[in-house]
Amino acid sequence: MDTSNTRKGRWLRAPWSTIPFLLLGIGIVGFGKDAEQELAIDPGDWPHYGRDLAASKYSPLDQVSAANVDQLEIAWIWQSADYDLLTRNPGLYINPNYQVTPIKIGDRLYATTNMGQAVALDPGTGIEQWRYDPYAEGLRARPTGRTNRGVAYWSDGINERIFLGSGQYLVALDAATGSVLADFGEGGVIDLAVDSDPRVTTYTWRSPPIVVRNAVIVGSQAMAPNRNWQTAPPGYVRAFDTQSGELLWRFSPIPGPGDPAIETWADSSWAYSGNGNVWTMMSADEELGHVYLPLKTTTNDWYGGHRLGDNLYGESVAAVDVETGDRVWHYQMTRHGLWDYDPPAAPNVLDVVVDGRPRKVVAQVTKQAFVFAFDRQTGEPIWPIEDRAVPPSEVPGEVAAETQPFPTHPAPFDLQGLSIDDLVDFTPELRAEAEAIVSEFVYGEMYTPPTLLDDSPGGTKGTILMPGWVGGA
Q1: What is the pTM of this model?
Q2: Alpha-carbon distances of 333 from 150, 209, 278, 323, 444, rounded to whole Å
Q3: Which residue of 7, 52, 134, 460 pairs with 139 in a disulfide if CB–CB is 3.0 to 4.6 A?
């Protein structure tokens, strides 16, 4: 069975959790009126994490350029609202790893905090217009949190809503006032740790939801409490009605009975394996009605002896129907994942010309420094993708995939694999030290599998992955 392709039917990180808003000393960027949730976006707005549902991350504003960027000055600094929680919670640890990308609609800038608060700021002054505090509201107890990357916005042209993940809750706020909207879910919130699958008992997510048409769609962090566990719930992707909070659909990245993809899991290992979640951002083609999901590694990240086979739909990009949640097509970019090489970013929705022909494309960047490009309606590759042999595993019980897909175009954007020739050679002494260090590890071409720690004389300390598994591309 060919499991690769199947068709069915920063803004700024600051050490003190602050957001400097930069304006030109020679002029101020103009701010438009409230933008509706539509394809036409006011040039001065940034209403989605990646500016638009296509995740273009591109602004048409041209006031800042290479010619004058050196004239930028700090206009204001906003300190995270989390620090105000210290007054009520002495000794509270405030995570300084602040990764939020604020969104801007009209005269408001919206952001979250690592503790699950939300704020609306005046873009010109940085003054808070409102703040949502889930602890003062009684939704959550003692403040906790890690990183939180932002909010999502919805409007029907009259009403405006802000959606955010706060702990295990999806919260709906009035965009103008920050008030909780009681007509959404249960008193304005949905407990995402409550699911019809009894294996789901906890929930966290750090990325913003995505709003497509009238659906607010959420992913999740890894569902296993420990990344080394072999079992976990599937990392469900869920869609809720933007006004009522009603569950519209739930997509499972782990196949179940009746899905031919279970053939890619030996010994019915799909029944107890989990994760495959969307931990990063999603994108969409609103007109086509497709949401594009970058799916994570299945349990667990670096060992698969308990789940032999290609393990669909792990480490795939999948297009799902926004109205039903049905899978339209998918492509698995890493088979039988052993490297935590899940896609780290939203697929980019592009209109490009290929060989003189206009093409509607979705392109997924990967941790391996590849760009996989597909027809976003059918999932057919835009350029050929080759199956190439990769190294076998030496770990007892493990069986690595014999081949992995390699795009023939575009070219990789970073080093793939590691050889002696790649080591630093600024001086003979540095080169000798580098060779001595890597001699203690297994290394080689990309997709060299993980190895066991060997403390015996001449043994190795594991495998060097190149590129590494830490997210970002």
Answers
A1: 0.90
A2: 27, 24, 15, 26, 20
A3: 134
